[in-house]
Specification:
This protein is mostly helical. It has helices at 2-40, 45-60, 65-87, 92-95, 99-123, 128-141, 143-153, 157-186, 190-200, 204-214, 216-231, 233-243, 248-260, 268-281, 287-311, 314-319, 322-346. The chain folds into two domains: 14-88 and 300-312, no CATH class; 102-284 and 314-347, no CATH class. It contains 17 helices and no strands.
Length: 347
């Protein structure tokens, strides 16, 4: 019986691998091409080239369904592995650079984003569940936060799909805008630029891409700001459960059930990041191994960013309704204005 089960598992893995392979290969090839092109146009950098080249290839040539599974794997899984390996290049002392004011900035920025998103959505006439999904997606970590919030507030698939689309669209525009804004406001000061990017952008991939457009140092520190937001996802989901008038007992039971099913709210790559960081801080991971991890992390990151570009559907961006587009625009403005104000006061 166990042998049959093992054979079935192997067949499932093989089937999944076959589905992933075409899109994975395209993501890697676009990433490698971006690295080569960056040698010709070093000012743009391989990260920026990977996204734009991915958008070009994905929308003009390779947008077919057979590639989508591999694109999704490359964007999510490869980026997750890259983040874990990034932990092997940062010490605990680097993480402590945020300090009390840095963490306070993240918390206040999230609170303002949530309140602003809920208020704007109500004024625009959107339903309660959709507003909650938009708030969690923009305040925490994009699609992942939305997926974690859906069961707690009993949202439907339509609200989930539209909120994921509009949150990602908002993030894509901000991904390119924030480095320009950071240059004007902060002349690329490491801490302030990292706070701006890590405290605003919706998805982890967008933080990596936007930070890399400035420098590797900004990317690394911006990721730490972002990880603090991801850790706070549990608190956001818990709060929305209360706003939907669920009891403590109901929410806790759902959390226990999710944990049993392996649906832990804090993503595994965050845990992996801190483990690798601790090992590096204790010198268990040597400097030489850390350099290898950094090199691999950078390559995986470029492949993931290429996949992000490949998955951007320009037609979808154009076809978004006026109301949801305005919703995303207004939320983005609130995030940028509040982040700039908080950085001026706290940092």
């Amino acid at each position: 019986m166990s042998t049959n089960k093992q054979v079935q598992n192997n067949n499932n893995l093989l089937t999944r691998f076959v589905k992933i392979l075409p899109g994975l290969l395209v993501s890697i090839l676009v990433g490698l091409a971006s690295i080569l092109l960056a040698n010709v146009v070093p000012k743009l950098g391989s990260a920026t080239i990977a996204i734009f080249l991915g958008m070009l290839v994905g929308n003009l040539f390779l947008h077919q369904e057979k590639f989508q599974e591999g694109y999704k794997f490359s964007e999510s899984d490869l980026l997750s592995y890259s983040i874990v390996l990034l932990g092997a290049t940062l010490s605990v002392s680097t993480l402590m650079e945020l300090g009390f004011t840095g963490i306070l900035f993240v918390i206040l920025q999230m609170v303002i984003t949530i309140i602003g998103t809920l208020y704007i959505g109500k004024r625009l006439g959107f339903g309660e569940n959709f507003r909650y999904l938009m708030a969690s997606g923009n305040a925490v970590c994009g699609s992942s936060a939305i997926a974690a919030t859906v069961p707690v507030i009993d949202a439907d698939d339509k609200d989930k799909g539209i909120s994921i689309t509009i949150v990602n669209v908002t993030g894509i525009f901000l991904m390119f805008l924030l480095p320009l804004l950071a240059k004007i406001l902060y002349n690329y000061d490491l801490f302030e630029t990292s706070a701006l990017i890590g405290g605003i952008l919706q998805s982890v991939g967008q933080v990596v891409a936007s930070g890399t457009m400035v420098s590797d140092s900004v990317k690394d520190l911006a990721m730490i700001f972002k990880i603090v937001r991801v850790i706070l996802l549990v608190a956001v989901v818990f709060t929305f459960g209360h706003l939907k008038q669920k009891s403590n007992k109901e929410i806790i039971e759902e959390e226990v059930e999710d944990t049993k099913k392996g649906k832990i709210k804090i993503p595994w790559y965050v845990i992996g990041f801190f483990i690798m960081c601790a090992l590096f801080s204790m010198n268990i991971i040597s400097v030489q191994v850390s350099e290898v991890c950094k090199a691999i992390s950078n390559k995986l990151e470029i492949f993931a960013l290429a996949a992000i570009g490949l998955r951007v559907n320009i037609k979808d961006l154009i076809q978004q309704g006026k109301a949801v587009s305005l919703y995303g625009l207004f939320v983005g403005i609130v995030q940028v204005v509040s982040a700039v104000a908080l950085i001026a006061v706290l940092l």
